[in-house]
Design brief:
The protein has 337 residues and is mostly beta strands. Helices cover 13% and strands 38% of the residues. Strands 1, 4, 14, 15, 16, 17, 18, 19, 20 and 21 form a 10-stranded antiparallel beta sheet that branches. The relative contact order is 0.18.
Length: 337
């Protein structure tokens, strides 16, 4: 029996800056009366992070965690892809809905992690799904901003003048390597792909009180003098093959990210090349067919893990299908890097 790709139950995170657009734009069934800032779509974090592991929502392993099945079916799921040092899936996949500005923050870089084993390196990419007119992403420090400037401005309105603000354009991808000061601006909905860490150092919280700031830790991680303020427009032009258009968004040492459009009635053969993939369904509908098995219906807002060993499978579009495809670097790529 060929097991189907894995579908997951989202893990909703209440945030002071969160909103309700995950329901409106992606069809999520959110709890009533709660500001949901994050939907963790695929998570396999260490035991120290509460409610940090995804539960499977389909097939014979429904109700079990990804970690449990990963340890039983590692080769089938992962192929030659590597796990984290703790034995978990090497990415954390989310949606973020910013009704208000997120805190100005930075994540640990490799040097900080080596000196502080309790911290975890975090590099991430945002793909803008929706944005209100005039919305921005804060991405990097302006040229000439020094440690002394940041210390003087943290916790005051002057911090805004230190940050590079770039327009939030739907479809654009923004890579935020560890050490980059950043903040998601109000009115922006993004998909986030990141290394599996929840270590965040806040520099400023836009006048909100009650949440801890971590200026000293942040200063140790910030890459002063490195410009992060590119516009983040998707490039190069898409690759068109039959009914499929593929936009390559970013390729990093930790993951690759593409946006794929499959036209109505189109078919896309699934070729994993011995590595797992994650699909985030942004719009439309369709299904995944596996030889000899019933079709697995795909709908907007769902996130699927395509196992490395899946064969004889294809994706079929119903009303047209748009999704993000997340890939992992192969050990060969790592050896050549």
């Amino acid at each position: 029996m060929m097991h189907p790709p894995l579908l997951f139950q989202p893990i909703f995170r209440e945030k002071v800056w969160g909103g309700r657009r995950l329901a409106d734009r992606l069809g999520k069934s959110l709890p009533e009366g709660v500001r949901i800032g994050e939907s963790w779509e695929l998570a396999d974090l260490p035991d120290s992070i509460p409610d940090g592991r995804s539960t499977i929502a389909n097939g014979p392993w429904r109700g079990r965690t990804l970690r449990e099945v990963l340890h039983e079916q590692r080769e089938w799921l992962m192929g030659s892809a590597e796990l984290t040092e703790e034995g978990g899936f090497p990415l954390l996949i989310k949606y973020l809905d910013a009704r208000e500005n997120l805190s100005v923050q930075v994540h640990p870089d490799a040097d900080y992690v080596r000196a502080h084993p309790e911290a975890h390196l975090k590099s991430e990419a945002w793909v803008v799904i929706d944005a209100e007119p005039g919305a921005v992403i804060y991405k990097g420090l302006k040229p000439g901003v020094t440690e002394a400037d940041l210390r003087a401005h943290a916790g005051t309105p002057a911090i805004r003048e230190d940050l590079v603000a770039v327009p939030a354009v739907p479809g654009a991808c923004h890579y935020l390597p560890s050490g980059t000061v950043h903040a998601l601006g109000a009115g922006v909905l993004v998909a986030e792909v990141q290394t599996p860490s929840d270590t965040t150092f806040r520099i400023d919280d836009w006048g909100r009180t009650g949440r801890e700031l971590h200026l000293e830790e942040a200063i140790e991680c910030i890459r002063f003098g490195v410009d992060g303020g590119d516009a983040g427009e998707p490039s190069p032009p898409p690759i068109e093959v039959g009914s499929t258009r593929t936009f390559e968004l970013v390729r990093t040492p930790y993951f690759g990210l593409e946006r794929i459009e499959l036209r109505s009635a189109g078919v896309l053969e699934i070729v994993t090349s011995g590595m797992p993939e994650v699909w985030m369904i942004l719009s439309g509908s369709g299904g995944i067919e596996v030889a000899g098995e019933p079709m697995n219906a795909m709908e907007r807002g769902q996130t699927w893990l395509i196992p490395a060993s899946l064969t004889g499978a294809s994706a079929r579009s119903g009303t047209g299908l748009e999704f993000l495809r997340v890939s992992l670097p192969s050990p060969v790529e790592g050896a050549l890097a």
